Every structure is written in structure tokens, then in C-alpha cells.
């Protein structure tokens, strides 16, 4: 036996055996908290499935897919190139995550590229900080589950502070001459197939569907919000019709296919006005089917959307199960006592915000799982300020990605970046918690 | 002997590109060596920022997307 190679599995097996041998089954069985945690996590999963998947996540995947296919990423990257205007580069870097960073695995190569071949350290750091926070799925999910204030605060906080962090990094290391990278940026040629305003209207139609289908019941029975709520399905149908029209006019879908698809949706909506979900699901299925059969561009749109769904849904589900088991549904307890949460990150003190930032900076969150975890923490008594701090520091940094960043820009700059992220996230949390907490 | 390099930090799309390129190269019957480049420094050394990317004999052919099978065929033959 080769001990050098085999000691690891041996250690695992011995460890596993010892654990099983002394497993305190009787004690665990008597633990009410443990049983509770199982039910809590099941309730939470059901709640997600009922409330968030159909009306929110499914349209969001279509939007994210459309961003991936129809927004020319190359046309954005030219503002982050080596000869780019420096001031403009910061602005573009801070917001371009919204369309460049739909998948978290693309952020690090883009960051490395901007740093070594493009606009340099400052814009690269700005991009790295804001990217994960403002990508389209993150914004939609945060606003939907954690509430619009936190959703908006997350996006605005990420953009503003990313510029500050970028500038600080630039000033701190302004004397360092970067080894010139011999490679030129290899950028795909931007393919322009339709004017920008047509794309804008197309995205507006989809965002309209998403927003109005999810319009929440307002607390009062009168006023503008209530009248929008009362007719939300009419408005949603209007946006859906607009989307259909756009697809026929600008995306060369055959009109009779759209008409044929719209008919059953309309009939179902009239037949079951109490459960509009039926018409919604049928509409989505028909759209998916049509996209498969109508040309390269449309198939690609569907494929990319499906790719996101396939990648993100399982992670999110696991995240929800874990969050439910550890923290319970809002208002009840899981494995971790709410008291602990409230003590360490409750209220809006400096220490609570700092703790949330540091924990977020080192913890690894799989794509978007920060949202259910935060929901659990908020339900267990976390303050809104620390929640924002964690939302800002969390997805931007984790121990594994710090190692990659270090390999790109060295230990000193990485330490500076991590410190800046923690400071800025803490500051954003404090400010948000003071005014909206 | 062609050197085919798939550039990407190991996400789903890079894996797909790897498999597709392999299938196309096999179908073409060319002699090739296929490598995954996952180190981010090496990827940037190619000038690539948007993964997945495909390089043939050291020259970047596609970046930022998975090319269609007939495009792949063109690059690999």
C-alpha cells in the first residue's frame, strides 16, 4: 500500500467510522430543534416553489437568456479596452456587470482581462465589485424576495461603491508600472442585427411582464397601487401581446404561430380568471416551443435561457433547503437559534455591519443562493443594514475567488481590495440601516 | 497535428465546447491534441476575456460563445 497516496481516503474512512460509532442517535432523536429544522426547510422549499418559480424565475431566465444573446457584449467591452477614455471606463465598468456578468463564472476572466489588457486596475476592481450584485437575475431575485428597497439599495450601493473602490485601488497603486501584456484583446466582432431602440422595447416588454405578473397586493384597498394590482393580469397580457408583436415584426417569427399560441392562452385566461397561473404556464410552454422551431437566433435565445435555468435552479433549491434547515422560515427557528443571529447581526451597530461584511467576504455563495440565506437571516432578526453589507461583500468575494484574484494581481493588491470591500460594504450597510432600517 | 485549446475557467459552457470540438475533430478525422486551459493568467495571455474560447495552433478563433457545428468545422479543418 502506498501510504503517501492512500492516507487521505484512510483518514476519511476512519473518521467516518468513528463518527458513526459514537453517533448520538438517541440524543439527536430527542432534539426538537432538529425535527423542526426538517419541517422548516420543507415549508420553505414549498413556499419558494409556489411563490417564486413560475411567475418570477421563469420570466427572469428568459430575460437573462435574451441579454446573453441579443446584447452585444463586444460593444460594451470596447469601452473597457486599453485605449478607452479613463473616466468613461469607470462608469462603464461599474454598470456593465448588469449585462456582462449573467453567469458568475465569467466575471473573473473579464476582471483579469480588463486589468491586464484593458483599462487597468481601477476599472477592473470596479467591475469585480459591482458585477455579481447587479447582474439581471440577482437584481430581480433580490427585489422579489427581500423586498424592493433592499433590491434597489443593493444595485445602487454596488454601482456607487464600486467606483470608489476602483479609484482607491488606482490611487493606492498608481506608481506601479504594470508589466505590459503582449497579447491584444481578442474580441468577437460586434454583430449588429437590429437597432438599439428595438432591443430596448423588446426588453421593456419582457420586464413589463415580469413586473406586473408579480405585482403584490398593496395594504390599502384604494389608490393607484391597488388599481394596478386589480388589473395586473390585464396589464401583463398587454405586455405579452406587445412581446408577440415585436417577435413578429422585428424577429421574423411567423405571425400565425404567435396568433395560434395566443388563442389558447386568452381562452384559458377567460375560462379560469381565478387562477391566471394556468394561462401563464401555457403561454410560457408555447413560447418555448415556438422558439425551438423559428430559426437560429430564437433557438439560441431558448438554449441560453434553458442553460441558466439548468445551472441556477438546482443551486437555488439546495440553498433554500439549507437556509430553511439552518434558519427556518421567517418568524420561526431552524437549527440556529434566532437569538444568536440577532445578537451578532441584529440592529445596525458598527460591529454588526462589520461582522456581516467580513463573514460575507470570506463565505462562498453559489450563484444567487445569497438571497434565500439572507431571507432566513432577516427572518431570524438580522438588521437591514447588515443584510445589505452581506449582500454587497458576499457575492463579490469568497475565499476561493480571492485565491484567483491573488494569482492575477498579487498579494498586496488583493489584500487592499479585500479591505476596501469590507470597509465599503460596512459603510453602505450603516448608511442604509440608518435611513431605511 | 493540430493543437486545439479550450480556454475557460471550467464552467458549463467550456465543457460543452470541449465536447463539441472533440466530436467535430473526430468526425473530420484530423490528427489533433486537445487541451483545456483553465489558468486565468494563461487565458489572458491569449488575449481572451470572454470565455469559453477556442484556439487552434495558438490562434484564438472564437471567444465568448460556443460556435455552431459548421463554424467549428471551418476552424478545425
From TrEMBL, chain A:
<dbReference type="Pfam" id="PF03773">
    <property type="entry name" value="ArsP_1"/>
</dbReference>
<protein>
    <submittedName>
        <fullName>Permease</fullName>
    </submittedName>
</protein>
<keyword id="KW-1003">Cell membrane</keyword>
<feature type="transmembrane region" description="Helical">
    <location>
        <begin position="52"/>
        <end position="76"/>
    </location>
</feature>
<feature type="transmembrane region" description="Helical">
    <location>
        <begin position="126"/>
        <end position="146"/>
    </location>
</feature>
<feature type="transmembrane region" description="Helical">
    <location>
        <begin position="233"/>
        <end position="251"/>
    </location>
</feature>
<feature type="transmembrane region" description="Helical">
    <location>
        <begin position="311"/>
        <end position="328"/>
    </location>
</feature>
<feature type="transmembrane region" description="Helical">
    <location>
        <begin position="194"/>
        <end position="213"/>
    </location>
</feature>
<feature type="transmembrane region" description="Helical">
    <location>
        <begin position="340"/>
        <end position="365"/>
    </location>
</feature>
<dbReference type="GO" id="GO:0005886">
    <property type="term" value="C:plasma membrane"/>
</dbReference>
<comment type="similarity">
    <text>Belongs to the UPF0718 family.</text>
</comment>
<feature type="transmembrane region" description="Helical">
    <location>
        <begin position="152"/>
        <end position="173"/>
    </location>
</feature>
<feature type="transmembrane region" description="Helical">
    <location>
        <begin position="385"/>
        <end position="403"/>
    </location>
</feature>
<feature type="transmembrane region" description="Helical">
    <location>
        <begin position="12"/>
        <end position="31"/>
    </location>
</feature>
<feature type="transmembrane region" description="Helical">
    <location>
        <begin position="258"/>
        <end position="291"/>
    </location>
</feature>
<keyword id="KW-0472">Membrane</keyword>
<keyword id="KW-1133">Transmembrane helix</keyword>
<feature type="transmembrane region" description="Helical">
    <location>
        <begin position="88"/>
        <end position="114"/>
    </location>
</feature>
<feature type="transmembrane region" description="Helical">
    <location>
        <begin position="415"/>
        <end position="436"/>
    </location>
</feature>
<dbReference type="InterPro" id="IPR005524">
    <property type="entry name" value="DUF318"/>
</dbReference>
<keyword id="KW-0812">Transmembrane</keyword>
From TrEMBL, chain B:
<dbReference type="InterPro" id="IPR036249">
    <property type="entry name" value="Thioredoxin-like_sf"/>
</dbReference>
<feature type="disulfide bond" description="Redox-active">
    <location>
        <begin position="11"/>
        <end position="14"/>
    </location>
</feature>
<dbReference type="InterPro" id="IPR012336">
    <property type="entry name" value="Thioredoxin-like_fold"/>
</dbReference>
<keyword id="KW-1015">Disulfide bond</keyword>
<feature type="active site" description="Nucleophile">
    <location>
        <position position="14"/>
    </location>
</feature>
<protein>
    <submittedName>
        <fullName>Redox-active disulfide protein 2</fullName>
    </submittedName>
</protein>
<feature type="domain" description="Thioredoxin-like fold">
    <location>
        <begin position="3"/>
        <end position="76"/>
    </location>
</feature>
<dbReference type="Pfam" id="PF13192">
    <property type="entry name" value="Thioredoxin_3"/>
</dbReference>
<dbReference type="InterPro" id="IPR005243">
    <property type="entry name" value="THIRX-like_proc"/>
</dbReference>
<keyword id="KW-0676">Redox-active center</keyword>
<feature type="active site" description="Nucleophile">
    <location>
        <position position="11"/>
    </location>
</feature>
